[in-house]
Amino acid sequence: MSSTLDQLRAAIISDPDNAWATEQGWQPLFAAHPHARVAVIGQAPGRRAQESGIAWGDASGITLRKWLGISTETFYDPRRVALLPMDFYYPGQGAHGDLPPRPGFAARWHVELLEQMPHIALTLLIGQYAQRHYLRGAAKPTLTETVRCFGQYLPQWFPLVHPSPLNFRWQARNPWFAEQVLPELRCTVARALGLEPDLPTRPTPEASQDAAERGSMRPTEGPGRNGGAPAK
Fold it and tell me: Based on the number of CB atoms within 10 Å of its own CB, is 57 exposed (0-12), middle (13-18) or buried (19 or more)?
């Protein structure tokens, strides 16, 4: 990390607005490097992430890395990926789950940090707090609409839904996300990082036709030996 980034980290720790977290022994949870190419803007860290000092170290992080098509090693390499949540500290528990990021935190610190990372080619905006802050009036009325219109924000921004397991119903209601958004996301991230995209191999139309013809020439499978179920 550059000396300026080190100075910014020290300034965040000593900021009176963060004294309550510093007194608990918490460190600001972010990762930055002058050579970073992709920035991941999430919401605030949860308690487990704050106490472990590892952002995206849970099931949400596993899903996110799968979405991005990158390894854990690449994801946690600050020379490639910068991790900048909308608040660098766990904001506490509310009546219906974790509290949102503190207003004004990202505005106070993100600009200075991003100025020290001039090679950022792509910024992922995960969740409504990041999207409202960075896209402002360009964001759609709902998160779903914003994510579906991701192409309008490229090449600088890529809006995403949070990869929490709790969002499985949202993904079931919006199959276009896996079918259209994720393949483009992997390619876009790979280009930004200078990597080959990790995409599933799709059969060509000719290969699919050949497979269908071969299948039609196979004899119908009857019961297995001794009258059991068909052989597998």
Answer: middle
- Model pLDDT, residue 228: 36
Pairwise CA distance, residues 126 & 177, whole Å: 14
Predicted local distance difference test score (pLDDT) of residue 178 = 97
Decide: 26 and 89 in contact? Cβ < 8 Å: yes
Q: Identify the H or E element spanning 83.
A: strand 81-83
List phi, psi (to 5°) of 150. Answer: -55, -35
Q: What percent of the chain has pLDDT over 70?
A: 84
Contact 132, 142 (CB under 8 A): no
DSSP for 91-102, written as a single string: --EETTEEPPPP
- Residue 63 amino acid letter: T
Task: Establish how many alpha carbons lie within 13 A of residue 204's alpha carbon, considering only the half-sphere containing its beta carbon.
Answer: 3
Topology of domain 3-195, CATH? Uracil-DNA Glycosylase, subunit E (3.40.470)
Q: 153-191 pLDDT, tens per residue? A: 999 999 999 999 999 999 999 999 999 999 999 999 999
- Spatial separation of the C-alpha atoms in residues 31 and 226, rounded to whole Å: 63
Give the residue carrying structure tokens 């949870």: 29
CA within 13 Å, CB half, 209: 3
Calculate the alpha carbon distances from 115 to 35, 54, 111, 118 in Å. 12, 24, 6, 6
